[in-house]
Amino acid sequence: MARKPRTKRATPSEKPAAATGQPASDWRSVLWPSLASAVALWAAFPPVGLSLLAWLAPMGWLVVADRKPPISRRGYTALWLSGCLFWLATLQGIRLAYWPLYFGWLALSLYLACYIPLFVGMTRLLRQQLRLPLLLAAPTSWVGLELFRSLFMTGFAVNLLAHTEARHPLTIQITDQIGVYGLSWIMMAVAVAAYQLAVYLLDRQRLRKRLANRESTLSQATAQRPFPVAALGLASGLVMTTLAYGGWRLRQADQLAQSPPLLNVLLVQENTPTQFDADRSMYRQAWNRYLELTRKLANEHRSTGVEIALVVWPESTFTGGDTPWISPNLPQELPEAMAQGAPELVLRQIEAIQEAFFTKIGMVLAAARGQTFRLRPDEATRQQSPHLLVGGDAIVINDQEQRDYNAAIFIGPDGRVLGHYAKMQLVMFGEYIPWGAAMEWLRQLYPLRTQPGEDARSFQIGEVRFAPNICFESTLPQLVAWQIGTLRARGEAPDVLINVTNDSWFRGSSILDHHLACSTLIAVENHLPMLVAANTGISAHIDGSGRILQATDRLVADGILASPRRDGRWGLVQAAGQLVGWICLIFVGVALVPPCWRALTRRFASQFPNSPVQIRR
Q1: DSSP 8-state class, residue 373
Q2: How confident is the chain (617 residues) per 10-residue block, as mean pLDDT?
């Protein structure tokens, strides 16, 4: 009797996808288009700066989001790896200042990489739950997640898709109505239209080959994807509207440029790299270089008959780590941690520090006037310009504690401190260590005492008000908009924004360009000129239309005499905030409700299998 041939038992990897529950897609088919998108988007940003690529770069991720088979865990891991490649390459300048910042660079990049698989997953979810077409689902998912990452933890709103267009004033004018997130939505919609057109053309090419080889019939030809009329129509309409609106706004800006300047502001930029192991002599040398550069620049402009109303030094450059400004409103009893049984000694130390601080003020004011420094200037000298806005350390002491701030200190021509603004949004790993006990070892190795400020401030010179922000606060559009709205409600609305920053941490890398791009878009959204004073660069004068009128080179000692004009044009963003971003985030949240509910009910059913309550799955 003949024996039946034995059939080989299928291994798990050989079983059909339906039997194993594994998705049918191959993770390699996810990885390669994802890596292509990551490389293209990186090239759209500085240092390469091929900004046109940003309108097409997401197409590789759209390929994955549009596929019908489910995406496996390995597929989502491949998406995350593409995000890692993009963010590690884009943010590599973070690591340059000090070796602990390698941890910050890696941690931040690996976290931000999660938004790529989240984008793909949320796009698919919006299509499944809300029945949105890809043309709406992809831009909504992308923008909702952009807004979320600008809010989550301390927020990180750098390198939004719209920031690739910062050097193109014609394109970015529409952000005064729809915000930076609205421009990202338009750009993603264009990427979807380009993707659907490419798929249509590829399908037609394949069909022609099959018809030529008689592998398909004419009835099958009609089943191919239709021409993407809706996608191309919407994308073309959005682009034409964006360009037409931009042209109209820029013509208005040309007329505003004919108005007289509000005041003359001298932005001083030295090239003094930050070093964590710097001693007092290095701080002193850096301070002296700033003093001499201020004298040189002021004399050059004074010789042409220009009166300087305000001199600006960048973040942390004035006090130099050893002579902070200390609020004169001391409590009757010092905090116990400060006094330590010798309050008289502490008070003498405070007095000595303040004497040194005000001596520095006198030296800078004399340099800015082209005069010889005198410890006790006469009354005529005290009434001369300019005012000073300097970045430095500020200490406020009450009867409970000492609070240390990173501040912008406003000083009058008579040498008195007229006010200060304390930085509200601290930099992760630069000014505070996140994640509690998990990073305690790094906190012990790398102690940081800076505390966040609590309020917006604006200062006045004549009839002109200006509002400072510090460092990477100009990368957070919601924060700056809140500050402007708060000041407007108090009757202290600014005419000019001034960002003081110490970008020497990044050693001239493309992080400087990313920072400047954020400042540019904020100027357009609020229609306020933005002045940037940056240690080692890039310092800039940006008008209310986002046009960079003047900018310094990086890693040089230089200065800018900025004469900003009043703008004050109205935009929807000023009244309603980032409306497009919030609408997109709400859609993302609504799409998450059904799967989250199903997960919760399954968990409840597994924990209480004998519950009389019947849970509908």
Answers
A1: -
A2: 48 42 65 96 96 96 93 93 97 86 89 96 94 96 96 88 97 97 98 95 79 60 73 96 97 95 96 73 87 94 91 91 82 68 77 90 91 65 80 85 90 94 83 64 64 93 96 93 94 97 92 96 97 96 97 95 95 94 95 84 71 51
Q: What is the pLDDT of residue 10?
A: 43
d(CA 272, CA 536): 6
Dist. CA 125–CA 590, nearest whole Å: 10
Model pLDDT, residue 487: 96
3-state secondary structure 131-187: CCCHHHHHHHHHHHHHHHHHHCCCCCCCCCHHHHHCCCHHHHCCHHHHHHHHHHHHH
Q: What is the DSSP string of 406-423?
A: EEEEEE-TTS-EEEEEE-
Q: Token pair for residue 540?
A: 């800039």
Alpha-carbon dihedral 92, 93, 94, 100, rounded to 10 degrees = 80
User: Could you give the CA distance from residue 547 to residue 524 in angstroms, rounded to a whole number?
Assistant: 9
Give ∠ CA 282-283-284 in degrees, rounded to 5. Answer: 90
CA 609 to chain centre: 48
Residue 325: which of 416, 400, 430, 401 has the closest Cα? 416
Q: What is the CB neighbour count within 10 angstroms for residue 296?
A: 13
pTM of the model: 0.89
The whole-angstrom distance between residue 494's C-alpha and the CA centroid of its chain comes to 21
- H/E stretch holding 463: none
Angle at 524 between CA 523 and CA 529, to 5 degrees: 40
Strands 459-461 and 325-326: unpaired
- Identify the pLDDT of residue 265: 97
pLDDT of residue 542: 98
DSSP letter assigned to residue 450: B
Write down the pLDDT at residue 345: 78
Q: How many helices and strands in the chain, by DSSP H and E?
A: 20, 13
- Cis ω on the peptide bond leading into residue 117 (within 30° of 0)? no
Q: Find out whether 84 and 113 touch, Cβ atoms under 8 Å.
A: yes
- Distance between CA atoms of 559 and 551, rounded to whole angstroms? 9
pLDDT of amino acid 19: 41
Contact 34, 117 (CB under 8 A): no
Token look-up 């299998």 returns 609
Cα–Cα distance measured from residue 384 to residue 362, given in angstroms and rounded to the nearest whole number: 12
Please, is 454 exposed, middle or buried when counting C-beta atoms within 10 Å of its C-beta (0-12, 13-18, 19+)?
Answer: exposed
The answer to whether the CB of 79 falls within 8 A of the CB of 30 is yes
DSSP 427: P
| Residue 281 to residue 230: CA distance in whole angstroms | 66
Residues 497, 522: Cα–Cα separation, whole Å: 10
pLDDT of residue 8: 46
**Tokens in use for 111?**
């976290």
Both tokens assigned to 473: 């606060």
CB 501 within 8 A of CB 549: no
Report the alpha-carbon angle 599-604-605, nearest 5.
100
* Contact (CB, 8 A) for 259 and 566: yes
Q: CB within 8 A of 152, min separation 6: which ones?
A: none
